[in-house]
Amino acid sequence: MIYMVEMALIDLDRRAEWDAWYLAHMRTLITIPGIQATQRFEALSPHPSPFIALHQVTGPEVFTSDAYRASAGPASTGEWQSRMNNWHRNVLAGIDATPDVPMEGALIVVEDGATVPVPLTWLRPVGLDRSVTRRAIAVATHRAEAKKMIGLPGVRVCKPLTPRLVAGG
Questions:
Q1: For 125-139, how does the pLDDT look when each residue is reduced to its tens digit (9 = 90+)?
Q2: CA distances from 112 to 5, 116, 136, 137 (A)
Q3: pLDDT digits 0-9 by tens, 17-32
């Protein structure tokens, strides 16, 4: 399953500091039982929630575990919680593992009803916010091919900000 977190950073003057904090946060997340991998992205065109993190989880029960509650979740974001908005957290079923998007590639996020000229993996919400009815993802191994989809309604093309981090890796 995928735990998809989307948000916007309000305080862009502190972007470098936030990026460093988020990378450390990702490293903490993959030490929690049930969180197996993580990767972070940024939309290549304006979007209300331009930042996305994809976390591979074993299931929604991860979010009620003592380990998760002790070192993750909204309370773990400290001062950054007030510096982010358009924050959405969805647990999505339809794929077991998060894709490994190469740094020169792109993650394509497609809303229900949108169409794109690439094969999609459709996901459905099964936990947390359930703020989407259905959503798809695809991976472009080369960003140039994905850039052609920028501007299509309901499509977000995102560049990786980090490589995919894997628990125990």
A1: 999 999 999 999 999
A2: 18, 11, 7, 11
A3: 999 999 999 999 999 9
Side-chain-facing half-sphere of 81: CA atoms under 13 Å: 8
Which residue has tokens 């773990």?
A: 76
CB 141 within 8 A of CB 105: yes
Secondary structure (DSSP) of 55-123: EEES-GGGGGSHHHHHH-SGGGGGGGGGGEEEEEEEEEES-SS-----TTSEEEEEETT---SS--EEE
Query: What's the gap between Cα 56 and its chain centre?
Result: 10
Helix (H, G, I), strand (E, B) or coil at 14: helix
Residue 43 carries which DSSP code? E
For residues 90 and 126, give the distance between their C-alpha atoms in angstroms, rounded to a whole number: 8
Map out the domains of the chain with their CATH numbers.
2-164 (3.30.70.100)
Alpha-carbon distance 116 to 12, whole Å?
Answer: 31
| Residue 96: C-alpha distances to residues 45, 133, 167 (Å) | 28, 19, 15
Contact between 51 and 10 under an 8 Å Cβ cutoff? The reply is no
**pTM for the full model?**
0.94
User: Could you read off the pLDDT of 68-123 as tens digits, one per residue?
Assistant: 888 887 777 777 777 888 999 999 999 999 999 999 999 999 999 999 999 999 99
